[in-house]
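Pair request: fold both.
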Amino acid sequence: MRENLLYQDKNEKVKTKTYIRLETCIPVVKAYHNVAFVLAIICCREENAEWFFSNFINLYSNLDSNNNLSVNYDVQFFIDEIYYLNRESMSMKNLDLFQIDIVKFFENMLLNNRYICVYLDEYYIEFTMNYKLNHYEHEVLVIGIDIENKWFEVLCYGKDLKLDYRKITFEVFKMAYYSEYIHRDTPVMFFSYHSKLYREKYKIDKAHIFSMIKYYLSSYNFFNIRRGILYRKEDVNNKYGIEIYSDFEIYLSNIAEGHKNGKIQKIELLPFYVLFEHKENMERRIYFLYKMGYIEEKYIVEYEEIVKEARIILNLTIKYNMQVEKNAYCDKYLRNLIKMIEDIRKKEVNILKKMSET
């Protein structure tokens, strides 16, 4: 983790007469497509670390009346501006007006160092969960093209539930792109790096980061900060920052209560993965702040315990679901999870409060 703070795997740029692949990586924030795609571009460059660690500090959660729990970050890239990236877009309907060869057009965009985010119908794509089952539109990030072998290289999730590099033949790509089930008002987005003349290097600000951490600890609705430039309708049930732990506890308690009535419910793993991912990246942020000379090393050691506990929590949710599949007794897992959620909240508050007051 110390060698590459921003990514887990990286592909360098390649360009030959018949093959183009733009520089990309598997970023350390990858739970959601809309965040992972742009970070797969930005996190390739360690020089962008000061921007990265100034973001992804906060989380919000939503628990609805049907006990569906969702958790997400404070940065939503399909809405928010991306500091280092230029974003251009055009609806599929408008692209259709030009009657262009979409394969050739995307080839030219890649030649011009444009990453392409496009929605496709998963029904036609073999590595997806909806292959030959459902017509379902989902985005992929086109990062390369092999003209000789006639396939695009894309970054996306598949039925293996992993963010990975995959290939789609031109024939399948066109079927998925021109599917009647894809709404033609859907935008095709093109990402490219801003010229350094246009965007100077982002400089980290310790005061800003500590201010955001204090918002996190106070459960402040961070969307209010940007309300003047970006209106966002908020759900009254949303919880912010440290208060999201309450939603985790209620969610697990509701599942336990359902057991008493004979209703066995699996745990939705994604919120727990986001929680673990957030703790990992907070620890990376603390390490980065230490390397910059802003905080003492002891906070790294203390927060590593938070990461370990978050990993155990995630593993317990997986074990619980395995027990449910076997129709085995699993209430003990729920009790342990609720207790661990309570404990990790107290410990995180204690560490971050001390650190943000230095």
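--- second member of the pair ---
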Amino acid sequence: MKVRKFPLIRLVTGFLFALLLVSNNLYAELPTIKVEGNENTQTSYVVNLTKNCLENQKAESTAEVDSAGLKTCILNSQLFADATIDLSSDAITVTIDERWTLIPVPIISSDSGGGTSVGVFLLEQNFLGRGKTVAIGATTSDSEGLLFFMYEDPSLFFSDWKLKFNFGTQKSQIDLYDGDEEIDGIKNNATFFNAFLGYKLHQDLTGSLIFQRVISRYESYEDYVRPKDFAANSYGLEFVLDKSDFKFYFQEGLRGELTVLKQFLRDDKDDLVTTGNLNLRWEFLTYSDQALQLSMGAGAVDKADRRSAIKIGSQIGARGVPDEGAWAESYGFLSADYQIPLMSGEDGTWTVAPFVDCGSINSI
């Protein structure tokens, strides 16, 4: 019997076309949606964003629409400074006030080698006026450097699917500390690629499949033992619970992320490594427009060595530890930040934030 083989491109094209048909017919019963105030954002994007929000409300007519909830849902895209909802018997009119979404981020910092790292990142949160995010950037110094690209589509073809990928190269010098004393270190030239394909399992819950490819090439560094080069492929799962609402300078509500990543191929024949991380954050208003942020995090790796250990330092929960200055087999932390806004404008809010971190690190 002769088996007919279908090229992969036909399968991919059919899948994407099916998504497009579903997204175009899912909301056929809803009233007409009119959009005003958009200059950089495409009308079709705002219309479909509004339809997604109405689907979350299970609204089938203007009489069933919660206008305050619809406004909050639209602002959660983080593309608009304000939105006004006007309901009538035959249409829903959405008037938006757009934010500036093309953000250059200059970087000047001290690197772990004692030099100065300089660079710039360019972030566009409304690429082509369709709510997609693109980031590109580079940093350089005498001992370190990074070249990075990222693309994210939070609603692929206006469906419940999500696509995200990033890739780049990074030259890093990572030092291990015991108190203030440097006791070990590695230099790594890494090339990486990460891809996430996600699906909205519930209004507030997204699950994603992950693929990761990392190639690490190490250099001799002082008198420390040079690690063995390796390349590895990994697959994994990520679950994101997001019950937060965007409030311009913070996310009010609860957000949690659980990620598990397992290697399935290594060219150095060493043991395959599994890594897990859990992060929770809860933010809420206190006095006036001030906000309290409570965070907790935990992580572990099952076969930790100098290469695969979780590198901790400078992030929330470990801001008193030098950048990547602790190499952990497992860790846990609690953190509290109190955000006090000082000055606000159309492009952002300046805040001062006293904080406290506490945690435990099980070093390799």
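Observation on the second member. The CA atoms of residues 290 and 340 lie 5 Å apart.
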